[in-house]
Write a structure and sequence with these properties.
Elements lengths: L2 H4 L6 H24 L10 H8 L1 H12 L7 H30 L4 H17 L6
Helix pairs in contact: 2-3, 2-4, 2-5, 2-6, 4-5, 5-6
């Protein structure tokens, strides 16, 4: 049995890279939601939270580029990469919807944050699909 056949899909370097990009994207989306819900006039937004949210566009672009690749190989690797690709696409669509709501008016920001947070939470619940 060769080395790649003994590794599970979670050990494949392509899956590790793709999963890392997805986890970074989720972190930035979480930060964006937390900032959107932050009480004005309260405590200042922590710098790590601000930095993570500021990286959202870069992380979204990276995750989309990586997820856009075609994976071939063992069926388990292909299935895992497909699950991650689906999660990235769903998060991308949720962020686009969030931006549309926010751009439509400040009164929609809270509702948009709730919807984005719900989608991020749903994706987190599916994390077992790419382990």
């Amino acid at each position: 049995m060769n080395a790649p056949a003994r590794r599970g899909p979670g050990k494949d370097p392509r899956i590790i890279t793709l999963r890392s990009a997805l986890e970074s994207l989720i972190e930035s989306l979480d930060a964006t939601v937390r900032i959107a819900r932050w009480e004005a006039g309260g405590e200042p937004i922590p710098e790590p939270l601000r930095r993570s949210a500021a990286q959202l566009q870069d992380r979204l672009g990276s995750a989309n580029r990586l997820a856009g690749g075609r994976f071939v190989g063992a069926p388990a690797v292909v299935a895992t990469s497909s699950a991650i690709r689906e999660a990235v696409q769903q998060l991308d669509a949720a962020f686009v919807a969030y931006r549309k709501h926010v751009d439509a008016g400040a009164d929609r920001k809270g509702e948009a944050a709730i919807e984005l947070d719900a989608e991020v939470g749903r994706i987190k619940l599916d994390a077992h699909r790419w382990d």
